[in-house]
Amino acid sequence: MNLLKFGNQFQFVLILIIKIDIFQSKTIIDTIICMFSECCQDPYLLRNYQKLEYLLDNNLYGQPMVTNILLTSIKGHLALKNPPKALVLSFHGSSGVGKTFVSQILAESLYLKGTKSRFYKFYSATRDFGINQKINEYKERLKNEIEQAVKLCEYSLFVFDEIDKIPIGLLDTIKTYIDYNHEIGGVDFRKSIFIFLSNIASKKINEFNLENDRKNLPREKFKLKTFQELIIKDAYNNKGASEKGMFHSSIIDGWLVDYYVPFLPLERKHVKKCIKKELKNYNFNDKNYFKTKANHDIDEIAEEMTYEPSGMAKFSTSGCKRIPTIVRNFIKRKRYLINEEL
To answer: Is 261 helix (H, G, I), strand (E, B) or coil?
Structure first.
């Protein structure tokens, strides 16, 4: 009996040693792989909130609500060991006000490789989902790609651009992954982040912004709640002529979007900041350029932009989108000597 008991104990210890050895071997193999390829762990996962705050403060102009929402929501979501659901943000506003730029800033702050990380997935509606008749094909593709991405890294970031041009009903495909589900097929999607970008409700946002501006209310005191109500109503009820957008989407009536984030139209003063930032991308031969000529040039370049509304001409119709081209042409027209672009 003692020999039998000893034998059983020995067998148990042997199995335990083998299991530990296999676990350690796997850990060693994973470590070696991560030395040569991006993995879902340090140092590839940054979660650099200081970098995020710095980039927003120094590169995003005229969007105090965006900065506040992004910092609090990202920090809050990633701080939870087991968040209740995936974080879903929907960015709304006119062209050139910073929606795509902010999504890129977020990627640069979350991943060592930024937007080149394999954990960052960017979809363009016109490029990836342009034909309504292929919606079933798109649904299957989207389902497979989201599942594979989160299996690879639970902290994946998905960005969907031009949601106003996406076939109606396609977004409902992702409802399961952003709902209050602990696991789907053994995969936990709750730590992932989904961001939608669109021009939906931009007219409503601009109108309400103008109304507040005429009351001399500073942007820092705008109430998010009213903007969100305007966006939800417009997004849910606006079908559009091409059968595209968020019309009657289940992710809206299921209250699965955590924040509808309004991007306000940019004023002339914000445009001038964009121009100055773009000029700093050039290494002027005249080392005193920013002391002697820059301010005059910034004013001149700003005048080349188009502003609205009529009679007020305060808000840029294209945000800062056209500025890189306008600045480049301005420099050539002025025949400034440039050593090289920085």
So the answer is: strand
For residues 234 and 239, what is the distance between their CA atoms, to the nearest angstrom?
Answer: 9
CA distance 16 to 268: 69
Write the DSSP string, 41-87: STTTB---HHHHHHHHHHH--S-HHHHHHHHHHHHHHHH-SS-SS-E
Q: What is the pLDDT of residue 310?
A: 87
SS3 state of residue 216? coil
pLDDT beneath 50: ranges in the chain? 1, 6, 13-14, 16-17, 20, 22-23
Host H or E run for residue 339: strand 338-341
Contact 94, 199 (CB under 8 A): yes
CA 68 to CA 230: how far, in whole Å?
19
| Residue 24: per-residue pLDDT | 54
pTM of the model: 0.89
Whole-Å CA distances, 101 to 56, 127, 244, 275, 293:
10, 19, 24, 16, 28
User: What CA–CA distance (Å, rounded) separates 90 from 111?
Assistant: 21
Q: What single string gives the DSSP state of each residue in 272-318?
A: HHHHHHHHTTEEESSTTHHHHTHHHHHHHHHTTS-EESTTT--EETT
pLDDT of residue 115: 98
Closest CA to 130 of 94, 167, 160: 167
Q: Which pair of structure tokens corresponds to residue 239?
A: 């079908």
Is the Cα dihedral 235, 240, 245, 247 positive or negative?
A: positive
